[in-house]
């Protein structure tokens, strides 16, 4: 790739936008009101806006290796907090993809240095669903199912946060689990039954959402 070409592409893009709407960038500079928070993989083949057919300003985006939502990751937690509390997004999407290198790397025993603790989160997903996954003989199908289960577990991590629970209760914020199929280009809604999932886990993760002054201080 010619890096210089990128700046020429940018000039062409600016001109194309201005040809259609001369106020395009002045409107864009006024602020953002995206409806969607999209959490996806850093994989260069899985773009966010392009595969959803949406324009700049329509999605708040976070991408990392294997679309993870680790509970203690400051970057992911800050993005979720800002998207829900400040931008008031209506939907949170965790989008995985088949043939994800991050998920495949997590299934191998190679020592990958700083990636080890990150990929361990995916190994935890495997451990949680070991019986189902080990029952799948076909290795490709097993990887694909792990990609789906990883999306489901990351959606659960999203739901564990206080701001998401509050927004679900107050303004019906919804969480979605999707998978992008690199082989066909299709976006697949996993139609995760969150009501059923939540019934099982909310006993553990439900947070007391009353204001701090209403809560009894117990130290
Ligand atoms: Zn990936």
TrEMBL record:
Signal sequence interval, chain numbering: none
GO biological process, one term: carbon utilization
Essential cofactor(s): Zn(2+)
Residues where Zn(2+) binds: 41, 43, 97, 100
Listed EC numbers: 4.2.1.1
Pfam families with a match to the protein in the record: Pro_CA
Transmembrane segments: none
GO molecular function: carbonate dehydratase activity; zinc ion binding
Keywords: Lyase, Metal-binding, Zinc
Family annotation (CDD domains): beta_CA_cladeA
UniProt-listed PROSITE patterns: PROK_CO2_ANHYDRASE_1
The keyword Magnesium belongs to this UniProt entry's keyword annotation: no
Reaction(s) catalysed by this chain's protein: hydrogencarbonate + H(+) = CO2 + H2O
Keyword rRNA-binding: no
Cofactor note: Binds 1 zinc ion per subunit.
Cellular component terms (Gene Ontology): cytoplasm
Family per similarity comment: Belongs to the beta-class carbonic anhydrase family.
Protein name: Carbonic anhydrase 2
Source organism phylogeny: Bacteria, Pseudomonadati, Bacteroidota, Cytophagia, Cytophagales
